[in-house]
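INPUT
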Amino acid sequence: MRPALNLRTLVTVVLIAALVLLPLYTGLSGNRFLLTLFTRIVILAMAAVSLNLMLGYGGMMSFGHAAYLGIGGYAVGMLAHEGIDSGFVQWPVALAASALFALVIGALSLRTRGVYFIMITLAFAQMAYYMFAGLARYGGDDGLTIYKRSQFVAPVDLSNKTQFYYICLALLFGVIYLVWRLTNSRFGLVVQGARSNDLRMRAIGFPTYRYRLVCFVIAGTLCGLAGALLANQTDFVSPSIMYWTRSGDLIIMVVLGGMATPFGPLIGAVALLVLEEVLSGITEYWQIILGPLLLLVVLFARGGIDGLLTNLSGKASGQGRS
Amino acid sequence: MTLFIEQCLNGLQFGLLLFLLAAGLTLVFGIMDLVNLAHGSLYMIGAYFAATFAAWTGSFVLGAVLALAATLLVGMAVEVIVMRRLYGRDHIDHVLATFGLILFFDEAVRLIWGPAGLSLSLPPWLSQPVQILPGMNYSAYRLAVIVVTLAVAGFLYVLVMRTRIGMLIRAGASNREMVGALGVNIKLLYTLVFGLGAALAGLAGLMQAPILTVQIGMGENILILAFVITVIGGIGSIRGALVAALLVGFIDTLGRAFFPDILRMLLSKEAAATAAPALSSMLIYLLMAVVLVVKPEGLFSAGNK
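OUTPUT
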């Protein structure tokens, strides 16, 4: 029997409580910056959770996940630029556009395996990057300022920072729940089966290509939602939102937190972005610390923070697996 | 017509340059099964070294030679310190670790050379145009690049296919344990191969340096192109890399030069002006998509050889 309260659960619960209570603290202390930072963290965590669905559970190593952030963001930005402010139009368009892009890219990329898949998803994401950078009407390289956030019905106001934070947080929990339900469904089990042994799954009679494609599309769509939120948060969208290093950041979040775990990507996103914030406070050249740190994590701490916590809980309660 | 020939030569030059990068990438992948995102960083470092050494020695050629040697050493050091620990691990580990290396290298360059870019000026005998056809001049430097890359491609072919080292490299690619068991120092061999790949990337970087500015992040954009090339050519195949690099070089250069005009003939002027920059930069990715549909393993898949 597993103890109900182990370190891993404890950390997750404390983190969630802290995220829920954060606006109280920032409201009292007047530290608006912290709220902005954490709104960003919550949004990127959502993107990481969506990536985890395909990377962690599905074993599909996409290096182009930031493309959907860009497509979701540009859907909001371009519609706003054309005078369509309603979130009831913008958000469904953002989701649909991301889904469509994911369908096309996925259908092509999933024909390949392993390192081909990594490079192809990366290349397609860069293609999207250059495409948006070439759109002079929508700011090209310089990006597009969004003068009015997505409009919803009366009480909902995205310009209210606290309200916007809670909307993002609620959507994040919604996405985590959805991914958790998906991974425990028949669909999720087939996708995970295809990760462990695709050939065997096909031999049993599952058309794994289709299952993986659907997983790819769901992950892309959910990330498109994060993109729509990110555009609203920054009131701005530019091609840099989907630059390939952003895809790398998302992968880091997933791996750092713990692949194929429900809360891993959230923990990873908080850890990475807070670490970035702290390091950049110490030195201008913070990436010179972050880079080698990342190397150490890869070399010595596989399973990420979640794995570390699980190990620690196991040892503490004398349940370490042999 | 002159413009067309000139653009073709530019395409050839760019394609051959890309080949240097892609060859290193595909060599390292084919032999060590290692995904090296930091390959672009070695390209950048080659360019920075060349600019620095050329300024120190006052000679472009001497600076280039020194830079090549220095990049080789950096590459071998990276292999010994980091890459060696990654062999046989998941691709995701490779991706993350080398992504960490990119952050490190970009920041280290910024720390050492500062955030502003450098420029590398050419000696007079290379900066003058030469007449290649009656009434047509072409940059001597670009011609020199074409000659050097062709020579390197020939050297690579002889090295891998005709020498003892090349034989060991090919043997190591097909069965690491067996080659080790036969008494070959496989660790040293891998270090050499990685260093060779690094030197090729550095060579590409230092040759591109006089054409573009030497700046941080210069390796990242071209790395993606190198990826596209290895995917099109088939991972692990040097021949495939050459063919794909030339294809990409031509299509990218000619596409940027002439595609807007073609589009203008088909669409209204306004629509063409909007769509052309976006579409012409997408051309090579479309090429990749087409290749994937037809041959998912690339044009010259090395397979499990």
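end of record. The two ends of chain B are 44 Å apart (CA to CA).
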